[in-house]
Amino acid sequence: MENKKTAPKKVQKRTFIGEVTSDKMDKTIVVAVKRVKTHPIYKKQYSVTRKYKVHDDKNQAKIGDVVEFVECRPMSKEKRWRLKTIKK
Fold first, then answer.
1. How far is Cα 21 from Cα 65, in angstroms, rounded to an integer?
2. What is the pLDDT of residues 36-86, one digit of tens each?
3. H or E, element range at 54
4. What is the CATH number of the domain that holds 53?
5. Is residue 46 included in any domain, yes or no?
């Protein structure tokens, strides 16, 4: 039997797009991600907003910018996301 070395499987990391709502912390921004859900019984659509704390190493993003961020290792108690690009 041969020991075949296989390349580790690359994990698809989650990415989201949202709007920056706060940039007052150092190297951290708060991003609100809005999505539309449908109620399972009444079939009515409603919006749900969730806030994420995102690591912004260079303090580039400002309030109102639309940004894309990706999952990463935990950087603090609540910060598990890293800024990828600024859309606007």
1. 8
2. 999 999 999 999 999 999 999 999 999 999 999 999 999 999 999 999 999
3. strand 45-55
4. 2.40.50.140
5. yes
